[in-house]
Amino acid sequence: THTRPAMLKHFAHRAAASLFPRNRSAFSGIQKRGFAIDKAMELRLDQLTSEYKVLLEAIEDAMDVHGTEDFAEEVEGVLDHSEVILREWEEILTESSEEQQKDIRIAHGLKIEDMKARVSALQDKEQS
Fold first, then answer.
1. For the residues 51-60, what does the mean pLDDT come to?
2. What are phi and psi of 53, to 5 degrees?
């Protein structure tokens, strides 16, 4: 018989394994469906994901200084960074076939929508 903590640890490990597979292409869902992208596009998508993570940290940093004189400057940096990410996102989609666009949107679209929502919330805080 398994003890309760051991079972929880086992299930947590399995859940983490399903969220973070070792095979990156399985995570993106792009190659798995058969619409392979070239290495250059894969690198651009990886860079977009990296920039998204940096932006999330910048948003948290801005929230940490909310109510101080540094807040406006932090928000400006976040807005500039988000515009760069959105331009790259649009370029990636423009340069992709319809099938690739569909798969790219499935694999990465939620990150972009999440980014837009977080930036909007940050702007709302700035105006309040």
1. 96
2. -65, -40
